[in-house]
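step=encode ok
step=design start
structure_in=
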């Protein structure tokens, strides 16, 4: 795995002595070393250990936090800290996150596990971690001021709880939330059922959704923004930087999505329909499931859906709010469709020599245009497929279904090779005469005359 290791405290005698200051029950333990990842590339899943059995999750553009066993406790170490995150090639954001990246690593466990999570604060302000959706003792809920004192800069706190349920959860601060979530502090928390035959799938993907407001040319999100975000991200990545979801034909595929933006996202998948099988409240009973091709993920909620990858191809998966599939710079452009801008452009060029009118025929021209842009800025609509520019950004990726992949192969198989005769094609024959609307007769009597009896007994219409 592509881990670089930072010795936070280490396993030395000094660590043992220092650990007494950390917490009560953990005092005999040293702090596990904090594993740090600097790369935005998807890391291979962490296979089950210690006799446990489950299909491990794959975090889009992310990774799973290794743990160590200490007696019968699974011990993890999260470090809250400023990070640099490449949101797509060509743009790096200065965010806050955990263990080197935003979002933080996925924590993956099994129902019944006893977990001990060390949280070290390397931010310039205090923080806490709330374990969203997880049933635990009140004092472990991570709400600063309400259930615990804040974790001050430089301090390490310990969270200990037994996992009583399975499902799809997440973690995020419950301290100065507006700032800390606007800066990218969050991570996924997946709990597999104790019975390995329950809810089994062949591929299991997880990601969280973020919204950022980063001015073109800047790297730091504007934390006061309430609604007018300009970067819509999955795991702090935007298209074309988001990993494809690769599946072998016939696989049962699960996708777990959490929403920590400030608006809802209708997530839409092309190809086969799917079924929502789980929320952050638990598994949906089969009697309450229905087929869908879009599911709305509410603010502060999670949706897990499953499908059988029957149809080979490159199937789009995206938020269906069209402004969420474009990147920065997209929102201050005026609508000019149908407006001849020639004279306007000539006038403006006398003042601004480089002025270029945009959007006369629509915005698609921006998908292929190489426009001069400030450094560290992504084009508004971008990405190239095998047939041309895709005019997308933001919350967009591709489910790639292929025959005969290896079970653990998540690498991008490249563009889909369509069987001959199965791609929409240009009509090159005679288009024929233009269609015309049928002529209207000068006066046509209404087909039927009717009186409507009102509930009160009177008549509507003319009296
Ligand atoms: Cu959206």
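sequence_out=
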């Amino acid at each position: 795995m592509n881990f670089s290791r930072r010795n936070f405290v280490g396993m030395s005698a000094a660590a043992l002595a220092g650990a007494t200051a950390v917490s009560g029950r953990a005092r005999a333990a040293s702090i596990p070393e904090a594993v740090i990842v600097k790369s935005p590339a998807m890391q291979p899943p962490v296979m089950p250990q210690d006799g446990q059995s489950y299909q491990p999750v794959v975090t889009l553009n992310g990774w799973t936090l290794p743990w160590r066993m200490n007696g019968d406790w699974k011990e993890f170490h999260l470090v809250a800290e400023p990070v640099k995150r490449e949101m797509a090639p060509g743009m790096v954001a200065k965010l806050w996150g955990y263990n080197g990246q935003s979002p933080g690593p996925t924590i993956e466990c099994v129902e019944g596990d006893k977990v001990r999570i060390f949280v070290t604060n390397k931010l310039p302000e205090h923080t806490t971690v709330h374990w969203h959706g997880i049933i635990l003792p009140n004092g472990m809920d991570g709400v600063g001021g309400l259930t615990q004192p804040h974790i001050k800069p430089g301090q390490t706190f310990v969270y200990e709880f037994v996992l009583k349920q399975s499902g799809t959860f997440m973690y995020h601060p419950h301290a100065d939330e507006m700032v800390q979530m606007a800066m990218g502090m969050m991570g996924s928390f997946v709990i597999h059922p104790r019975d390995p035959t329950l809810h089994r799938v062949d591929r299991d993907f997880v990601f969280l959704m973020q919204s950022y407001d980063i001015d073109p040319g800047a790297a730091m999100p504007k934390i006061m923004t309430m609604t007018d975000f300009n970067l819509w991200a999955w795991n702090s990545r935007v298209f074309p930087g988001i990993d494809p979801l690769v599946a072998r034909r016939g696989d049962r595929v699960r996708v777990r999505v959490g929403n920590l933006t400030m608006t809802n996202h209708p997530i839409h998948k092309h190809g086969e329909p799917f079924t929502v099988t789980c929320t952050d409240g638990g598994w949906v009973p089969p009697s309450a499931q229905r087929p869908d091709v879009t599911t709305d993920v509410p603010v502060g909620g999670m949706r897990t859906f499953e499908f059988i990858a029957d149809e080979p191809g490159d199937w789009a998966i995206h938020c269906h709010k069209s402004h969420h599939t474009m990147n920065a710079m997209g929102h201050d452009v005026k609508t000019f469709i149908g407006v001849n801008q020639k004279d306007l452009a000539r006038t403006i060029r006398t003042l601004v020599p480089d002025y270029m009118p945009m959007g006369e025929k629509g915005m698609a021209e921006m998908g292929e245009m190489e426009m001069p842009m400030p450094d560290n800025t992504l084009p508004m609509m971008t990405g190239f497929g095998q047939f041309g520019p895709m005019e997308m950004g933001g919350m967009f990726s591709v489910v790639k279904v292929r025959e005969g992949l290896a079970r653990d192969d998540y690498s991008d198989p490249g563009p889909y090779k369509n069987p001959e005769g199965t791609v929409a094609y240009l009509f090159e024959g005679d288009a024929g005469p233009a269609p015309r609307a049928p002529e209207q007769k000068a006066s046509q009597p209404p087909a039927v005359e009717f009186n409507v009896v009102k509930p009160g007994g009177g008549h509507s219409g003319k009296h």
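step=design ok
step=annotate ok -> The longest helix spans residues 342-349.
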